[in-house]
Design brief:
Elements: H1 22-41, H2 56-66, H3 77-93, H4 97-108, E1 113-116, E2 126-132, H5 139-149, E3 155-162
Parallel strand pairs: 2-3
Antiparallel strand pairs: 1-2
Helix pairs in contact: 2-3, 3-4, 4-5
């Protein structure tokens, strides 16, 4: 006779000679209480059509069981639902361009643009991903989604971010004296000036000891 977890009776699973032991009865009753509550909820995880009815904690558990590498517990509940729903199909379609697009969309919330190597003269088997950067993003999560679904032989060349936001750009300049130079010149170096001298022919200077000329 089958037994459902929702109404499990552990005592009935034990050998007959143990069932009359009071300690065994108490232990079996305690185990029954522990497994009946989650057992009554397990039906919610039996079908994919139940995902819309799962709580956040249940979605987290399903994602853990499915090894969804880009799943983020910090996502809102609708993002978690979308990621879990997509995961099974993505595993089936892994290695295709469609799978990469859907995985990034589930992780980021926006459709990416995938460019194959032959569209930008790249190396065979390489590709690029372009994303709208008008919202916050997590590079680590996006990379996990890409690596989860791309072909093993495919190589990501880079992720390009684009935005249509207006950016204010300001430009300016300034001059800076980085070094000051000085040089010495003799009287013979000057031909355009007449030097002022005294009666002995000695050059006259000012208080700063600079030669006077006219």
């Amino acid at each position: 006779m089958g037994m459902k977890l929702s109404d499990a009776d552990i005592l009935q699973l034990l050998p007959h000679f143990m069932r009359d032991d009071e300690a065994v009865k108490a232990l079996a009753a305690a185990v029954n209480r522990l497994i009946r509550t989650p057992g009554s909820e397990i039906y919610r995880l039996r079908e994919w059509d139940q995902i819309d009815n799962l709580t956040e904690d249940e979605l987290d558990e399903v994602a853990w069981e499915m090894l969804i590498e880009w799943y983020d517990r910090r996502m809102d509940i609708e993002g978690k639902r979308a990621t879990v729903k997509a995961a099974a199909l993505l595993k089936e379609k892994a290695g295709t361009k469609w799978a990469v697009v859907e995985a990034v969309k589930a992780a980021y919330g926006v459709d990416p643009v995938i460019t194959e190597w032959f569209d930008y003269a790249g190396q065979p088997g390489h590709f690029r991903v372009k994303l709208d950067a008008n919202q916050t993003f997590d590079f680590a999560k996006i990379l996990k989604a890409i690596n989860y679904t791309k072909r093993a032989s495919a190589h990501l060349d880079g992720i390009e971010l684009t935005t249509d936001e207006a950016l204010g750009l300001f430009f300016g300049f300034a001059t800076v004296v980085s070094k000051e130079y000085s040089t010495e010149m003799s009287r013979d170096d000057f031909t355009a000036f007449d030097w002022l001298v005294d009666e002995l022919g000695v050059s006259l200077t000012d208080e700063g000891d600079k030669v006077l000329a006219e």
